[in-house]
Design a protein that fits this description.
Number of domains: 3
Shape: flat
């Protein structure tokens, strides 16, 4: 269970994402990360159950994900009484293979905060998983395991989904591996309060805790969604599940594979939903578009001439039916691109042009991973000039150690919170991504040589990996 939906007792996390079959050709989109060809089965599906052959073909591409993380619920006790050991907590989720060379899609909430990730394949192999990147805003994460020739699930086109269309979910609910359920698409475009880019597929295919990260599959054998949440008062499925559309996931996965993080476009407006009453007040014929509530100083919208009270009815050729469509369109726009905005102002229609900027994301604290092996036990953050000034750090660049897990290799070696890692194995590191790339290149069992700035001194620390 993760978050509550307003007005509902509980929001339980559940299932689905992306994958591919090696005998299919791979799309050139996203550096050939995945296939999009429909599945062709080797035998005709039984007339009474068209899902039988698809389930037999696709189940081997769905994996079980087990994570270990530190329970931080006793932090207040530790703060005031000191020294209480933190408890390691294990949790289960699902994922599916999208590339035969070991790329696996799952939910961000499945691996968030994990110090150890174990991926169990359908053939029983247990492999350590490494996070290539994750995106909390869409609840998507991309993992890598050291394996080749894996079966994959192709990605479909979620924009073509029809309400009432049959779908199938595969996952590991309550730890029951390789469970298959079927249902229909109950609705599309659902906004459930999970983030700024909500656009969920609703399905009545049974989804339960442990299904999170598994695929939602159409009748052509393509993943059209990543199951992520359920609406329930009991903790079990009541026939209301939600999946992340695969079309929303594709650009995210491409960026996670290439850079480990997502870059989004920024317009610089705060918007609100247009209601019938507001539409009358703004001389609109119907309640469509995004009402501009405020405009950020120095942002693209301000420079383009947008004002509070403007109603954006079209963005870069896309008609804005609902206000929540605009943030997704802006986020997917290439940084530096000029876009046309059709705006209604005082009953008159005008066209403005804005140059999209980069959305500044607050630097996330992350767990430094050592190339497919368990974490070194470091929570780290990229040092920026602003952060260095705020915290009066001993270095203006590098990677700040925010936390060290008790009993971890880093703790045993003497790494301390507040240390700034400037080099790893005599190679400078300027960001968390640099650090993780360096750790990924390590040979199994090789020690990690860190050059650390601490207060007014410098020192080398060898950490066992």
């Amino acid at each position: 269970m993760r978050r509550k939906i307003s007005g509902i007792t509980a929001l339980i996390l559940a299932v689905a994402l992306v994958a591919v079959l090696p005998r299919f050709g791979f799309t050139q989109v996203g550096a050939a990360l995945w296939s999009e060809r429909p599945v062709t089965t080797t035998a005709p599906a039984p007339a009474a159950s068209p899902w039988v052959e698809l389930a037999r073909t696709l189940k081997p591409a769905v994996v079980n994900i087990s994570t270990k993380r530190v329970d931080k619920s006793n932090q207040s006790f530790e703060q005031f009484f000191g020294g209480r050991p933190r408890r390691a907590v294990r949790s289960l989720g699902s994922g599916f293979v999208i590339n035969p060379n070991g790329l696996i899609v799952t939910n961000n909430h499945v691996v968030d905060g994990a110090t150890e990730i174990k991926v169990t394949l359908a053939d029983g192999r247990e492999l350590p998983g490494r996070v290539l990147g994750r995106d909390p805003k869409t609840d998507i994460a991309l993992l890598k395991v050291d394996a080749t020739g894996l079966l994959v699930i192709p990605l479909g086109d979620s924009s073509r989904l029809q309400v009432g269309e049959p779908v199938m979910a595969i996952g590991n609910p309550f730890g029951l591996e390789q469970t298959v359920t079927t249902g229909i698409v109950s609705a599309t475009g659902r906004v459930i309060g999970e983030g700024p880019y909500d656009d969920f597929i609703q399905t009545d295919a049974s989804i339960n805790p442990g299904n999170s990260g598994g695929p939602l599959i159409n009748a052509q054998g393509q993943a059209v969604g990543i199951n992520a949440a359920i609406f329930s008062q009991s903790g079990g499925s009541v026939g209301i599940g939600f999946a992340i559309p695969v079309n929303l996931a594709k650009p995210v996965l491409t960026q996670l594979a290439a850079a480990g993080h997502v870059v989004r476009g920024y317009l610089g407006v705060a918007i609100q939903r247009m209601t019938s009453a507001l539409a009358k007040s703004f001389n609109l014929r119907d309640a469509h578009g995004a009402l501009v509530a405020s405009v950020a100083d120095g942002g693209p919208a301000k420079e383009a001439g947008l004002r509070p009270g403007d109603v954006i009815v079209e963005y870069d050729g896309h008609t804005i039916g609902r206000s929540d469509e605009l943030p997704r369109l802006v986020a997917e726009t290439r940084v530096g691109r000029d876009v046309a905005l059709t705006v209604v102002r005082d009953g008159k229609t005008l066209t403005l042009r804005a140059r999209i900027a980069k959305l500044a994301e607050p630097e996330e604290q992350r767990t430094a991973e050592a190339g497919g092996k368990p974490s070194l036990g470091l929570a780290v953050q990229t040092v920026t000039p602003q952060l260095a000034q705020e915290l009066d750090l001993p270095a203006k660049a590098g990677v700040l150690v925010r936390g060290v897990e008790d009993g971890s290799p880093a703790a045993s070696a003497g790494v301390q919170p507040g240390d700034v890692i400037a080099e790893i194995d005599r190679t400078p590191v300027g960001s968390v991504d640099d650090l993780e790339r360096a750790l990924a290149r390590l040979k199994p069992g090789a020690p990690v040589l860190l050059f650390v700035r601490r207060n007014d001194g410098d020192l080398y620390i060898a950490v066992a990996s």
